[in-house]
C-alpha cells in the first residue's frame, strides 16, 4: 500500500480538504480511497462486509469530522480503522456462533428435564427462537445472547463496556420484543434459562 507515499503537490490541497470536511471534501476522499480500502478489507473479510466497513468509516468521518494535520496520519487512520473493524467482525462472528451453540445446548438440557416438551418439534423451536433473536436490534441481540449463554448482568456489562443498568434495560426490551413474536411456551423456556442472570 503506497498510496500516500506517492503524494506530491496534492498533499497540501488534500490536507485543506480534510480539515474543511464539506460535501465536496467527503466526495473527493471517498472517490479516491474507497476501492483501495475495500481491497484492503477483503484481505480479512468477504467483499460485502468490507464494503459495509468502508461505508461506515466514511459515515463516521462525516459525522465526527476529525482533524488531521498530515496525509500520513489520515492514511494510518483509514487503514487502521478498516483493519480493526474487520477483525472485530470476525471476532463477533465467532462469538455469535458460540452463543448459538450454547443456546442449543441449554435448550436440549432443558427439554430433557421436561417430558411435556416431547410433543413439540425441537427443530421448529430452534428455528423460531433464532429467527426472533436475529430480528432484535444489535445491542439488544448482543446482550440477550450473552444472557442466554448464562452470563450475569455484571459480566455482560464488563464485557460490553456498558453499565449493569443498561444491560437490564436492553434485556427487558429484548424479552418484550420476543414476547410479540414467540409462543408463551418458548418465552417460558427462555425465562427459565436466563432467570439466574436477572438476579445478578
Q: Quick recap of the structure?
A:
The chain is built from nine helices and no strands. It has 200 residues and is an all-alpha fold. It folds into two domains: 80 residues, RNA polymerase sigma factor, region 2, helix turn helix motif (Rna Polymerase Sigma Factor, Chain: A), CATH 1.10.1740.10; 85 residues, Winged helix-like DNA-binding domain superfamily/Winged helix DNA-binding domain (Arc Repressor Mutant, subunit A, Orthogonal Bundle), CATH 1.10.10.10.
Can you describe this structure?
With 200 residues, the chain is mostly helical. It folds into two domains: 9-88, Rna Polymerase Sigma Factor, Chain: A (Orthogonal Bundle); 114-198, Arc Repressor Mutant, subunit A, CATH 1.10.10. It is built from nine helices and no strands. The protein has helices at residues 10-20, 23-41, 47-64, 71-113, 122-134, 138-148, 153-160, 164-181, 184-198. α2 packs antiparallel against α3, α2 crosses α4 and α7 (153-160) crosses α8 (164-181). The longest helix is centred in the middle third of the chain and has 43 residues, at 71-113. The protein starts with 9 loop residues before the first helix and ends with a helix.
- Return the CATH class of the largest domain: Mainly Alpha
Largest sheet: none
Total count of helical runs of at least 4 residues = 9
- Looking at the overall shape, the CATH architecture of the largest domain is Orthogonal Bundle
Amino acid at each position: 500500500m503506497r498510496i500516500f507515499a506517492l503524494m506530491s503537490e496534492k498533499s497540501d490541497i488534500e490536507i485543506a480538504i480534510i480539515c474543511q470536511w464539506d460535501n465536496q471534501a467527503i466526495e473527493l476522499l471517498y472517490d479516491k480511497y474507497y476501492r483501495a480500502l475495500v481491497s484492503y478489507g477483503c484481505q480479512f473479510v468477504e467483499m460485502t462486509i468490507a464494503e459495509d466497513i468502508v461505508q461506515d468509516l466514511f459515515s463516521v468521518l462525516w459525522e465526527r469530522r476529525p482533524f488531521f494535520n498530515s496525509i500520513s496520519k489520515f492514511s494510518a487512520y483509514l487503514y487502521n480503522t478498516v483493519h480493526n473493524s474487520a477483525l472485530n467482525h470476525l471476532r463477533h462472528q465467532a462469538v455469535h456462533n458460540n452463543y448459538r451453540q450454547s443456546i442449543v445446548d441449554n435448550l436440549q438440557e432443558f427439554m430433557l428435564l421436561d417430558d411435556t416438551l416431547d410433543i413439540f418439534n425441537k427443530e421448529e423451536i430452534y428455528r423460531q427462537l433464532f429467527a426472533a433473536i436475529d430480528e432484535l436490534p444489535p445491542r439488544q441481540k448482543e446482550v440477550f445472547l450473552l444472557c442466554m449463554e448464562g452470563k450475569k448482568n455484571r459480566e455482560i456489562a464488563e464485557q460490553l463496556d456498558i453499565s449493569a443498568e443498561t444491560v437490564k434495560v436492553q434485556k427487558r426490551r429484548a424479552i418484550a420484543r420476543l414476547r410479540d413474536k414467540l409462543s408463551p411456551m418458548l418465552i417460558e423456556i427462555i425465562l427459565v434459562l436466563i432467570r439466574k442472570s436477572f438476579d445478578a
